[in-house]
Design brief:
Blueprint (H helix, E strand, L loop, with lengths): L1 H46 L6 H26 L7 H17 L4 H25 L4 H20 L4 E2 L5 H8 L1 E2 L2 E2 H19 L1 H11 L1 H6 L4 H27 L1 E2 L7 H11 L11 H20 L4 H28 L1
Antiparallel strand pairs: 1-4, 2-3
Helix pairs in contact: 1-12, 1-13, 2-7, 2-10, 2-11, 2-12, 3-4, 3-5, 3-10, 4-5, 4-10, 6-10, 7-8, 8-10, 11-12, 12-13
């Protein structure tokens, strides 16, 4: 009896130690990224004194907010070991839809809600196909990327859609400021906080991590695996459509060609933020810092007059280094 009890205590101690090790590993990944971000800000300030001006910081937040909002939704999908390649097309569709609805006389709030609901419907449909038919999310969302972009072009025969005398309140949503802080940046921060609270403080958030860690074990434990996967894709679609609405608000016109390649930027931010592409580990705060880091890097290149080709090379190298670093940290955590 004593030996059995002692063995049980030993196993419990190992489990507790493993949990502490995983939490410590997550903290290391996030701290490393934050330190790199702060170091990059210092370098940017030294190389380009105009980096810390209020106008430049405002531009930085505006540039990062749309990608960041989409990346938050992408993080939730990746946490379940999925991928959403359709976010750029869904964002473009959301931006075009809100422009067409408002141009047809639909009230602003209703137009915004309908556009976001359409994005959630697209995302939920593709997530449902993946979950209930056991189709790879990569393929279902790749099909969605093409089909939804084509549908966006069909709405206006590939031409921009004028909002048609948009109210000032709608224009402020994407282009307004509170002091030096852009409203669109505030929206990004609020969405990040809400997503973090959902993932870390609700039963649904626990389900998301459980499904990503081991889908079969989660199913055998009675968790609604298919519903969780469908839900995170619906959230991703809704946030992508919201990004499209915000861009239309800023430009006062719907652009069917907008957000081309957005899915790659969102995935890059998720990976750089330390979220495991195989699911079960990571979070939105890492993604938030990664989005800002990539934006600072591009902003610095612009201030220094470096071309877009150079920016692509540097961004790719940073992502490669981040992947290697995260892999090394995971291996060290597994040995702990």
């Amino acid at each position: 009896m004593t030996t059995s009890t002692g063995s049980a205590m030993t196993v419990a101690g190992k489990d507790s130690g493993g949990a502490r090790s995983r939490r410590r590993m997550d903290l290391i990944v996030k701290s490393n990224l934050l330190l790199v971000f702060l170091a990059l800000c210092v370098v940017a300030t030294l190389l380009a004194p105009q980096f810390l001006t209020g106008r430049n910081i405002a531009n930085l937040l505006q540039q990062s907010a749309l990608t960041g909002i989409v990346a938050i939704g992408m993080t939730m999908v990746v946490l379940t070991a999925g991928i959403d390649l359709s976010v750029g097309s869904v964002a473009a569709f959301g931006g075009m839809t809100v422009a067409l609805l408002m141009g047809s006389g639909v009230p602003v709030v209703a137009a915004i809600l309908l556009s976001i609901a359409a994005g959630a419907l697209f995302g939920g449909f593709m997530g449902g196909l993946s979950a209930y038919l056991s189709l790879p999310s990569f393929m279902t969302t790749l099909a969605g990327l093409t089909a939804i972009r084509g549908l966006t072009y069909l709405l206006t025969d590939g031409k921009p859609a004028d909002v048609g005398g948009a109210p000032e309140a709608f224009q402020l949503l994407g282009g307004g400021f509170v002091g030096y802080v852009p409203i669109i940046g505030i929206v990004f921060v609020v969405i990040t906080i809400l997503a973090a609270l959902v993932l870390r403080g609700t039963t649904f958030g626990e389900y998301v991590y459980a499904v990503g860690s081991n889908k079969e074990a989660a199913r055998l434990s009675g968790l609604p695996v298919r519903a969780v996967i469908t839900a995170v894709f619906a959230v991703s679609g809704a946030l992508a459509a919201l990004a499209g609405v915000l861009l239309t608000s800023r430009l006062t016109v719907g652009q069917p060609t907008a957000f081309s390649g957005l899915e790659l930027d969102a995935i890059a931010a998720v990976v750089l933020g330390g979220t495991n592409l195989f699911g079960g580990r990571g979070g939105v705060f890492g993604t938030f810092v990664a989005v800002l880091l990539l934006s600072v890097l591009r902003n610095l290149c612009n201030l220094l007059g470096l071309g877009s080709f150079f920016q692509m090379v540097v961004t790719g190298l940073i992502l490669l280094v981040a992947l290697i670093l995260n892999m090394l940290i995971e291996r060290r955590g597994a040995r702990a």
